[in-house]
Write a structure and sequence with these properties.
single chain; alpha/beta; Potassium Channel Kv1.1, Chain A; elongated; binds zinc ion; BTB domain-containing protein; SKP1/BTB/POZ_sf
């Protein structure tokens, strides 16, 4: 017969004069002070749960609670600047859920710093907990996401502004499909083609039309391609038997890309539509 496992107690939160005890999802007890929770939070203890002497079970892990409860005591709070995303994300959720105000602010700042590596998660967090300025910051990264994902993330009142925002990106894409030096003329020898299939360059002509078609294929994926211009203009991994790229074409590609990047900087901020 096995005896039930005794829950361990957090080494930091084991105050003898504690008047409320929480249990993490991985069975660690936290003995803390009700008055600290009253002063620093709005959602502790969770509504609807009786706290008269019994242990309050929470769904968060002990790692999360260990950090969270430090924010309700008068001590130097964790800076979270080296906290990995896997730890920070549940902490931020818990801070919002229980309205632990001192933790909410720092979590929000740290998650903003991680938006580039975790755009989906940060967008969900910003939308769910109503951080409009953070949504605006993540918006350009959300352009790279599938439209369906974005629709799932966004609250209903932001769907129409989002559609208008995407339209601005679509306009940029439309103008991006016209390279500054044209589609078909070679940079040398006045070589002209009448159609893609009929293109026959003189021996001295460069292969500009070839590179144009190559980039257009990649841009043709849609507005998401505007978020990965490195890939669009990457000429290091083309199919076999491509012609060697000439300096004139190289310059023209740089120029084309610069034109697109410039247009992207002109796109209004998402907040202008919201
Ligand atoms: Zn050329």
């Amino acid at each position: 017969m096995t005896t039930p496992k005794t829950p361990s107690v957090s080494s930091k939160f084991s105050f003898a004069d504690s008047d409320i005890t929480f249990k993490s999802s991985d069975s660690v007890l936290f003995h803390v002070h009700r008055k600290n929770l009253d002063v620093c939070t709005e959602g502790f203890p969770p509504a609807g749960i009786s706290t008269d002497g019994s242990i309050v079970e929470l769904t968060e892990t002990s790692d999360t609670l260990e950090l969270l409860f430090r924010f309700v005591y008068p001590e130097r709070h964790p800076g979270l600047d080296t906290t990995p995303f896997e730890v920070l994300a549940p902490l931020a959720e818990a801070a919002e859920k229980y309205q632990v105000f001192p933790a909410m602010n720092i979590c929000h700042i740290r998650l903003r710093d991680m938006a580039e590596e975790h755009p989906v998660e940060v967008a969900v967090y910003a939308s769910k907990h109503d951080y409009p300025s953070l949504i605006c910051e993540v918006a350009p990264m959300m352009i790279a996401m599938p439209a369906e994902t974005v629709m799932e993330i966004l609250p209903a009142h932001l769907v129409l502004p989002w559609t208008r925002y995407v339209e601005e990106w679509a306009n940029v894409l439309h103008s991006a499909l016209i390279p500054p030096e044209g589609w078909l003329a070679s940079h040398r020898d006045n070589a002209k083609a009448t159609a893609f299939g009929a293109y026959q360059a003189p021996a001295t002509a460069c292969s500009w039309p070839y590179y144009v078609i190559y980039c257009l294929q990649r841009l043709g994926v849609g507005v998401t391609s505007l978020c990965s211009l490195d890939d669009v203009f990457d000429m290091t991994t083309p199919p076999a038997n491509r012609p060697t790229i000439d300096d004139c074409c190289q310059r023209a590609l740089v120029n084309w890309r610069r034109q697109i990047e410039e247009a992207i900087t002109q796109i209004p901020k998402f907040s202008d539509f919201a």
